[in-house]
Amino acid sequence: MFPIKDDIPTERFPILTVLIIVACTVMYFGFEGGAWDLGQSGDEKVLEYGAIPYEITHPGSDCGLTANDQVVCEGQADVSGEAPDQAPWYVTLFTSMFMHGSLLHLGGNMLFLWIFGNNIEDSMGRPRFVAFYLLGGIAALAAHVLIDPSSTVPTVGASGAIAAVLGGYAILYPRARVLTVVFIIIFVTVVQLPALLVLGLWFLLQLLPAFSEPVVGGGGGVAYFAHIGGFVFGLLLIRVFADRARDDYDAHQRIPVY
Asked: How would you classify residue 214: left for phi > 0, otherwise alpha for psi between -120 and 50, otherwise beta?
């Protein structure tokens, strides 16, 4: 499944959602120097400004690359010497949310943020949306670190924070309709599906590999537990933040009763 758009118009222009998309795009092309994929300089930025679980659970211990491009960290067994100075671990909690590992990674995340983030921004005051988004990203990263606190693999991407947006959307607008591209073997069709079905299937696709793939080694390069942590954060706390949610969002599709 590939969502294209939902059917809930916003009452305000989603300026913060747009600014986050712009910030992530500028970070990828300008700061990381990315194209279709990252080059060497981009990989160095990921190492310095991505969130590394080992650095978070061992404050003050920096990580660096060996001659054969392995990430090692100060304080690990059989590791000697000092790593080059890196961004402080608490800074990477935020910088990692705006960085991405490839153009496909960036594009997929920004599509989901545009489709679902505008309505979540519309459901609360803008300062609340900033807090919800950033805290959702931190909660997602915390879940990822909790699963493998000694991992030296840098984590980048907005998907944890966006997962919080998806969890909030599932609570506030479960009956919204989402125009979705559905792939069935060799056939492709476009249908409108309930948001709860689309987001529920998305969450299931995070759960299955999270508990079937080995945690050590990054689970195929996807931080599934970060997605799960962010989504659960959104499910549990959206009502705390959403003070302008619309109860009549599906009025246009209700059957009149006389």
From this structure: beta
